[in-house]
Amino acid sequence: MSGKLLQRKSILIVEDEQIIRETLAEFLQTEGYEVRGTGTVAEALAIARERDYDVAICDVQLPDGDGVRLLRQLHRINPAIFVLVISAYATVENAVEAFTAGAFDYLVKPIRFDELTNRLQRLFKFQDLYAENHRLRKDLVRSSGFDQIVGSSSLLQTTLMTIRKAAATNSNVLLVGETGTGKELFAREIHNAGPNKDEKFVAVSCGTRPVEALESQLFGVVAGQPGVFRMVGSGTVFLDEISQLPQGTQSELLRAIEYQQIVPAGGSEAVKVQARIIAATSHDLERDVAEGTFQEDLFYRLDGVKIRIPPLRERLDDIPELVEYFMTRHREAMGKRVTGASSDTVRTLMAAHWKGNVRQLDNAIERAVMMCEGEVIQPSDLPPDLLGSSATLPDTDDLRSALRHYERLHIVRVLKQCPDKKEAARRLKLGLSSLYRKIEELKIET
Asked: What is the reported pTM?
């Protein structure tokens, strides 16, 4: 079997009977595996925090705990670990409990080596299929033309599906999302996947001041600079933070959308333009319209194809891939030999609040690569303020309690960002009465 292994798989044995533990370890080592053994829950957890193991073989009855509870704790430390549970007292109840907790397989003592070999072969075959499926999901994103967008979470895939449809046309698009979610990156990918991808893409900040400079940049000057709208031809103009566009400039933009015409500064004759417009905002434009700071006609012109870019806290499953992507980029730029991040580091990153979203994560990894003295990024390499902002993880194995904890945490975050409970209920996809009931049940102060 050892000749079939492309690389040494690692196995952690947690068995309090020394003879059984050492016999299993000796057999597995001769089969080509890297093996470490222990007889207690406490030491097993300490070992699992030091490095990631491919498989754990856990006895049900241990001197300082039980194997099923240990299984859950191991999964919290390393979600990718596969666990085989072993027991001398096999019952249907024990087996059901083990499988419910996430065990891959269940073996009864005394363990026959041929049976263990077959179970491990099946486990690693499944593990390889799981990894291949994950890789194919990532490749699907790359092959779709969105090669700069990292992540394979279901939420991101849904967003990309919408973007793919919008990109296929030449329609104007409005991207809505919090600061740091990568709206310009998504805009560039829409352009690159669009019918005029060979034309220019130019980004303009709508917060540019003075206003005259912004309008000259966009619409040009008679007998002077042509302006972005003419310069890109049938390419794309990306208008970042469209909510900051001055009122007068909003009227000029509305003309460009409705009539495909602009009037250069200092001129009186309209000039034909063909540019596609992709606008982005982190503001609530409907509220801006209601407050009179954004033109209603322009809002409806832009709002036709609106795509929400999800914040990082809604796509936490993408963090490991993003960490790998940013780590590779920064280590190459700095010339450092950083090969990965520890499980504790990844868990810390997945528990952080990420108010600055992907941009903040990028900065955190850049700092971590710079501070890392070894080859693996540790939590101590992360920004100190990030460590202080991590959410408190519930110290419980009870699924209902954990879900209740995160439900409360999520609702509190949304309410902080959106004090208007009607709007908060809409974002949470709850009825208003249901939101009030949740606030009361979870004892949320508002």
From this structure: 0.62
